[in-house]
């Protein structure tokens, strides 16, 4: 008696599932615009983090007054 063959199919991640739904609901231009907007949000957050770090470094030194 032979065992039934086992099929290994990858379960899609949540991200993959959301992208699939997104591709059904939005046209290509809308998807691109949304991704560009999200990339801008992430870049703004990175710059804000860099500003906070730079201010932290500057605050470690006393202000030099002429």
List the helices and strands and how they pair.
Layout (H helix, E strand, L loop, with lengths): L13 H12 L2 H32 L7
Characterization of this structure:
With 66 residues, this protein is mainly alpha-helical. The termini are far apart. It is 67% helix and 0% strand. The chain is built from two helices and no strands. The mean pLDDT is 84.
Summarize the structure.
This protein has 66 residues and is mainly alpha-helical. It has helices at 14-25, 28-59.
Q: What attributes characterize this protein structure?
A:
elongated; 67% helix; 2 helices; single chain; mainly alpha; 66 residues
**Mean pLDDT, rounded to whole units?**
84
Q: Using only CA atoms, what is the Rg? A: 24 Å
Instruction: Work out the number of β strands.
Output: 0
Strand content: under 5%
Total count of helical runs of at least 4 residues: 2
């Amino acid at each position: 008696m032979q065992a039934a063959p086992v099929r290994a199919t990858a379960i899609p991640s949540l991200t993959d599932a959301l992208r699939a739904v997104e591709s059904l609901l939005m046209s290509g231009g809308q998807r691109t615009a949304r991704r560009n907007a999200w990339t801008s949000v992430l870049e703004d957050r990175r710059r804000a983090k860099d500003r906070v770090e730079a201010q932290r470094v500057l605050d470690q030194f006393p202000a030099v007054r002429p």
